[in-house]
Every structure is written in structure tokens, then in C-alpha cells.
Amino acid sequence: MEWLTYLLKVTTCTALFFGFYLVVLRKLTFFKINRFYLLASLFLSFIIPALQLEVKREMPMLETELVDMPDLKPIQPAPVQLIQPIMVEYQPEVTSKIDWVGIMAYAYSGIAFLLLLLCLLRLFVLLKHTWNYTKNSSGLKLITKTEGFTNCSFFNYVFINDADLSATDLSVLLKHEQVHARQYHSIDKIILMVFKSVLWFNPIVYLYDKALEQAHEYEADEITSADYGSGAYANLLLKLAISKSNMPLIHNFVKSPIKARIKMLFHAKSKNMKKLMYLLAIPVAVGLVWLFAVQVVYAQNIKDESKPSKDFYEGALKGKVLNIKKETIGLYTFDLLSDGKIYPIEATNFKEKIKVGDELIVYISGKGFIMKKTDKSGKVIAETNGPIYNVSKVTTLTGSLIYEQKIENHAFLYEANKARSASSKIKSIEKNVNGKIEKIVLNDGLFTINLNLKVQNIHNNYLKIGDHVLVKFIGEKLVSKNTYTTDKMIVLYSEPKKYTIKNEALYNRFYFSDGKQKVAVVKNEAAKVLEPVEPKIISFKKMTGDVQHKVSYLENVVIDISNCRLEARYVELDQANNKMIAKNASLKNSKQNVMVKSNLMTFDLKKGDYRIDIGDETKTGNDLEKLINSIAYIDNIDNSDAAYSARDSVKMSRDRSIVTLYGKAKLDYKNFTISADEATYNKNTEKITAKNLILRNKLTGITTIGSYGEFDINGKVEVWQGNK
Hints:
By secondary structure, the chain is of the alpha+beta class.
């Protein structure tokens, strides 16, 4: 579409330049200057729209807040009930869209090419007649010709019909054509032929052609009539006023309108002072440059300290989007040109809101790093070519918000034993006259938790205001926005663990003496009568069927089954035996936040039970959603380097950046395999913490056992024995 915009800008420039010529310059007798103006304005009409100039205007940094927006859920069409195929092969109907812009591009290019080809053909026809000539004393090459194009010239070739000309008439004609040859007017003719081919749709370019040819003839008439007299020269023009030639590359002696040429012969010459009128063309050119070539950029004041160092950057970058691409790991990125450097920026969440050439301010949230994608065995199957930078915010140069990262905050998390757990800071401590703690107020900067400890008879002088603590509790109540209160604190630890406040009765109810969680045993329930399962097809790319045996084969299919979403590369649906097989498939629960991947899934639709192969392990059951949540196997779902699973449960923040695993947690991370009672993976900080863990180094085979461990993105590992 850019080519069309460019051509429209060129057309606008030609119209304004030629309009100025008609109104101001056409009647002036400075024919050489008029010729130069016409040619120069044509070239400028092509150059000005191609220019890209910036005018920078500084403005103060704007603080932009994103207004709370309601959650909008995509509208999905009603599920399609599975029906028995009635054809051997079926392709879903695809509505074709006509690419009118593409058709216009081909049509324009085709016509322009044909016109250029016609120019070359005419030039070839003209040059065929130039082999035999007679050269006169003025350097003109005379070619006698009695039909077709005669009494005309092309460069220094002059085609004459001397049978109808006297010696005097021939002398005048040759003098006229000599002017054309010495002023190289034929070059102008060739240039105009090219312009007319490229701008064939623009009527202004044809007016340019006529005006330029008229300037040529006026110039030749002026010089020739100075030697022979205006009256005699006008009589010769009338005498040779014959039919016009259709050869556009030549200068025919009488091709231009005779009346206008004779009138100009007797027109009073313009005074030299009027040459200043040509300076009026400068504002026209400047106006077009401002209109089509200048982009005003409102630059925000970015502090010097926010500029990047050699290998680490955190702050604001101002630059231009060079390209937008999809990486091999599945993420979308764009290259930002800033201060002569190129920064690859991750843009998966806002790629539709930017385009190449946009001027942006990008707020980098940390050091760029190479992103990798691994298979279940830990083998790297794809990785980025270099470090990719994550952003916390993206705006235009004027401060309009394009994207802002929102990290969901939680007042507390749930443990497998249903106890609440929160890390916070002590805001205040209230004690009675005896020095016993009655209330501790915690605040992490967003959430407040009031711990009412009056009945617990606690005496502790070690905890101070401002200390970081880890608290576990139950029975909380929301008393106001982001404020909770409870009188059932279980335990409170200082961080690091030096001091402890413990409610022994509650602690023994939820934890063993070694700190491990007590998880309630699930009571045996009466067996449920299984009901048939009916899959609902949402979409597919291709379906083939065996009508006789009632078997359907689907490719790239999405199916809803038992409140879960199945996406598979291939599905075989046997309606006669109520069986369904899915290959290269993934299953998501109803909340779409936990996913199971498998090379083979088998469904018994009549009994309602399932068989899912995950690596070397096979999972079976009849509650598909419960099965998914219990497996909770996430294989690079967030394109991180970690894959993990847990026995009891997996908790996630809404943006899926923080994952907490409870009960026999297993986690593959880079070169390490971790088994722990509890583990937390934070994508934002790139840190993993684990409790009561067994750590195995895949490279060395060394196994380490500890009560607490921390791991970060740089591969730093720390494991403690005893309390941390």
C-alpha cells in the first residue's frame, strides 16, 4: 500500500508545481529557465515524497495511568455437534478474499512496463532511419525522407523533405533544428517519455510534456527569428503547416500550435527583474517538503543515567521499530534502533499494536538473556540468536500507552494443607503494659494483614518494625480493600529465620514437628455411575471419513470434552465403538491455566474414562479435569527453561508468572533436577526456591540434600542444611 501512497504524493506534487507554472511562469519569455523549471519540478515531485526528515520537539515526560478496563472475553461460536460425515473427504469452506491492492499493483506495473516497452520500440523505429545520412557544415546529419515523419529532428539527425522546400526555407529550417540539437532538447523528450510511462494515470504529466515541448519551440523560434526576421519566419511556419507526426521522440518543425508560436514571436520580451518571480517557487517546494517529507517528533526528556551500559540495561530506550518477527521458540520480537544500537525486544503481548517505522519509548525491565525451548528430555530444540529484552512498559513519543506489564499481587498464597502463607514487612507492633504482644500489623506495600495475638500471650522483644517476616495463618477476614485481619496466626518467622512466634495448638494441627505439612486424607467415596461423554468439535483444518465403519479422521482439531479443551494434530474418532484417539495433543482445564501435553491420548466415550501417556508414565482416570490438575505437567508453557509437576496441587498467579508446587514437587531446571516438598518458580525474578529438597546435577551426577535451596537465572545455586 506504501507504493500507492507514494504515487499519490508524487501526483500531488506535480499538480502544485505545474499549477504554479501556469499561473506565474508560463507567459514569461525566459524559455531556458522555464525548461529548467519544468524538468526540475518533475524530478522534485519524485524526490520530495521519498525524503524522510525529522523535526524534534522536546516535551516533558508524561505519567500515564492505564484506566481499569473490564475483562473482555472473546466471543466463541456455539460448539458444533459432531455429526457423521457423509462424504469420503471434506474440507471446511474457506471464504476467499480478493486482494484488490495486489491486483492494483500488478495492473499498474504491467501498464507501466508496456508503455516503457513502447518507448523502446519507437526509439528503435527512429534509429532504423539514421544509417544513411549527409553531414553539413553545422554538424547536422541530414536524412532525406519524403513520407512519414519529415522536417523534424532527433538530436543532430534532421529528417527533411527538400522537394517542397526552397533553398531559403531549407536554411531557416536547418537553423531551427540546429538550435534543438545544440540545446539537447531530445534528452528532455526521452525523460518525458519515461515519466509518462511511470505516471501514465496522472493527467498532469501529459500537460508537462506539452508545456516542455512548447518551451523548446519558443526557444528555437526566438534564436532562429533573430537571424531571419520575425515576419519571414512566421510566413515559413504557415507555409509548412502540414499534418502532425505521431512520433513523440522527434521535434517537428510545425508540430506545436502555430498560432501560439507566431504570437510569441511578436510578444514583448520580459524584463530581467521578472526573473525574481522564479524565487516564488521556493515556498512551494518548501511547503511540499513540510507536507510530505517532514515528521514532527515529540521527544520526551529521558535522563542520561537511563542509557544502556555495555551488557546490562534497565531504564528507558527511545528508538524506531526496524522489524517485527516470530522467533523459533514461538515468541514475537521486534528490533528497536536506539542511539545507533539495535535491541531485540519481546513483543508477544502487543505485537498487533505496533508496526515497522513506529517511534517508541520502551522501558526495559532488566538484563537481556537468551531464551531456549526444550523437549521433555531437557534437550534444547530451539533458542534465540541472542539476548532478548523484556519490557515493563511501551509508549509512543507523545506518552500514549501501548503496553504495560501488570504483575498480579496476592495478599497470601494457599499451601497444600490449606494454611495461608504471606511474606511481608512489620508496619507496627502493639504491646500491653506487661510487654506482651497484642497486635502485629504487616504491610508489603499493597496488602495489610492485621494479626490479633492478644489471647496467645506472646512475649518477644526481638522483632522490630521494618523486619521482613513470613507468616502462616487461617481464618482471615477482608475488612476493607486490601486489608485482612485474623486472630488465628499459626506461626511467624523472621526472614532470614532467626526468631519465631508460634501458636503451638494450631501449628501441630497443620504441621509435623520437622515443619512438613499435614495434608488431609481423602475419604473413600461411593463409586459413581459413569456417563457417556460427548465430544464437541470447535474447529478443524481437515476431515476425512469412513462412512461404512463410522470413523472420522481430523487434522489440527480443537475439541471440548468434559469441560476441558483438547487441541491435537490428529484425532481418530470411532463412533461405532465410542472410542477417540488423539496424537500430538494437549489438554487444558476449564480455567485454561494448566495444560497436559502427550503424544498419545485414548478416550473411552461410553465409559467416560481416559488414558494419557506422559513420557514413560501412563495416567488413567474418569475425571479428566481432576486428572489434569493432579498431573499439572507444564512443558515450557511460558517458554521458560523450567518444566515441573506436583502430586498435591499447582498454584499459579493470574499472569502465570509465579508457580507454586505442593507435595512431591518435581522440577527440571537447566542442568538440575529438583525433588522437594514445596517449590516456587517466579518467572519475573527468574528465581526458584525449594524446601526439603533433593538436588541432582545432570552434568556431574552429584546429588545434594537440604532443607532449603535457592536458584537463579545465572545458574547460581545455594542449598542449606537445617533452617534458613
